[in-house]
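[User]
If only I could read backbone structure tokens as easily as an amino acid sequence. I have put the entry right below:
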Amino acid sequence: MTEETKEQVQPVQQPVQEETTTIYASTNAVPFAAMLIPKKWALIGNVYPLTTIKPDPSLKSPKMDWNKMEWFENDTAQAGIDMEDLKQEVKTLKSKDQESNTKMDQLLQLSVRTNQTLGQLLTDKKQPAVATSTVDKGGAR
């Protein structure tokens, strides 16, 4: 005799989807790691080695400075590039400083010449340019 078994299909329960957030880890062994965790776990805050502080996207190899609570660039190649950029910027600033000093010297010399000319004009103004007498004007003798 053949028995037929009827399988009852049970509805599959979907797991409840929890809200997630990204948390970051940073240690000497692992300078940067990002992980998705349930949002309720993120309430632990910033406790070594986990932080909710997002690193600056411009950092190529971020690492957390736990004393300052900020991310910094950990890539030595990038640090070298940054150093060269700084050197170039210092060189440019020194050049601009020299140009400014030259222009200030020229301005100072112009100011001195202007003051000398102005002083001479004021001195000349006090002295009559032409001697006049009462005879020339037809006045009394």
Q: What stands out?
A: The beta strands are 20-25, 33-38, 50-51, 62-65, 70-73.
